[in-house]
Amino acid sequence: MAQAAAVAKPPAPPRRRRASATPRRLPYLLIAPAALLMLGFIAYPVISVFYYSLQNYNPTKPWRNGYAGFDNFTKIFTDDPAFWDTLTFSAKWVFVEVGLQLLFGLALALIVNQTFVGRALGRAMVFSPWAVSGVLTSAIWVLLYNSQTGITRYLADMGIGSYGTSWLSDTSTVFPAAIVADLWRGVPFFAILILADLQSVSKDLYEAAEVDGASRLKQFWHITLPHLKDAIVLSTLLRAVWEFNNVDLLYTLTGGGPAGETTTLPLYIANTSVDAHNFGYASALTTVAFVILLFCSMVYLRLSKFGGEDK
Amino acid sequence: MSIKEATPVVSETRKSPPPPRPKARQRAWDDVPRWQIYLPLGIYLLFTLIPFYWILLFALRPTGSTSLVPWPMTFDHFEKVWTEREFGTYFQNSVLVGVATLVMTTLVALAGGYALARFNFKIKRAFMLGLLCSQFVPGALLLVPLFEIFAKIQMINSLGSVIIAETVFQLPLSIILISNFIKNVPPSLEEAAWVDGCNRFTAFRIVVLPLLRPGLIAVGSFAFVHSWNHFLFALMFLNNPEKQTIPVGLNTLMGADSVDLGALAAGGIIAAVPVVLVFAFIQKWLITGFSAGAVKG
């Protein structure tokens, strides 16, 4: 193929081509499709969310629609306990979920980075929940947690716990139950990213450390961890944003219940806009969520000195 | 086609070829006692595999059975879900959405990524900033304005709306990844092809594209798996049962008053099979692809 193309063309002056091949416009043409799609379907909706946040906008109550100033925001901060409740729960959810996922993901990556018999199969099996959707994860854990034929029944058969326990409808067990379900799917994400980054640790460093008699723990602490730092910072950040925003799992697993116990802020926003049709207020909530997210991300990147001195 | 062919790309630029198979050269770092590998791995595997076994169990044993092995085996649940619960239709729709998203994301991201990797232009920084910022934009929170846009252009109830929405939210990360992959290909290779008389596009196709294979597989499969799995857009934009996708179907099964656990499990298996197959195929490329370009800007 290469030869054919090369032969078909008359030998063109090599360096000239570059200048004549519309280099000025080409990059713009190349980014145009992506830029247009993102302007139309991300930027425009974001701007309209900002716009609606200053409006009373409810399609079911058109007589009240109109400019509302900062009323929506005032209400959020002074007169909406659900906002604070769901925000607190979101923070708790993200913190616990990302922390545990990182911990297990790191451990798992270190294990499957070793050389051992059955590694390929082990990796494939351990990583497989990554590909599974939030809804399917819910379906699986609904089957596991259901009171009649779920895992509790068999535990009860063995004398652990009592029959008819449903972890998802009890306010004291629903949080750990949902956390475990999401861990099942979330750990492989970290394991994959960290394993990928482990591939690029120079073996020489370990050899040198070995010569100096450094223990394995020391090697991990002084070689592996610093190498992984940027990857860890970035993946925890991406994951935290993702965990904050993602509603698939909780929406289908608990529906935010029981008694609003597992409602995250985005879930609350979705309910406000979809069920209550209160678009103006939901937009204001979205704006607040967006600002919080951006602020936390900045602080996190600053604190972790991302891409710091050594770069 | 083999992985061995593809890995040199990475090793060339990163100087550390990931050993795809256990090799003879072992050192103290690898001298971890075996039980320290197998014991935690085994425990974690139980946590990973029991849920999979559980759903398989429910899908294959007759309704009402409490046996812990799927015997006698029955395929009634699958038949029921596939025909009565329309999972056949959902499956088709999901495949269509997944493949279309994969193709669109890859093509658009390839163009954008190439521009970022090989050119300096005025709005480059703004474009990069836009890509990064859009990572923080929660798709779920844009449902209402997105719905209004699609209503305006008459795409509600058309799979096109879901395909566009999935592609758009897949793009930022894909472009960043692909531009990093392209940066790892030395520009001199391309320049050599220009000297031989290829134009930019031909040079790209012949020289760069084959080297991008692991990265493209990672990005493409990401797009496919995400759009296959994602549920909110389909739930919001597609009201017609004939247009819905598998995750929405699963959600409907879960939401029913008395959940038919066998049907739910069978539906879950149907939802899992394509992604698990894709995953099994791309698993190794995923690690290579990521270590080549991903996390490190």
From TrEMBL, chain A:
Topology versus the membrane: Multi-pass membrane protein
Alphabetic keyword roster: Cell membrane, Membrane, Transmembrane, Transmembrane helix, Transport
Gene3D superfamilies referenced in this protein's UniProt entry, alphabetically: MetI-like (1.10.3720.10)
Annotated ABC transmembrane type-1 domain residues: 87-300
Main location: membrane
Subcellular localization, as worded in the UniProt entry: Cell membrane
Segments traversing the membrane: 26-54, 93-112, 124-144, 279-301
Metal-binding as UniProt keyword: no
Pfam families hit by this protein: BPD_transp_1
Family label: Belongs to the binding-protein-dependent transport system permease family.
Protein name as catalogued: Sugar ABC transporter permease
Native organism: Streptomyces justiciae
Lineage: Bacteria, Bacillati, Actinomycetota, Actinomycetes, Kitasatosporales
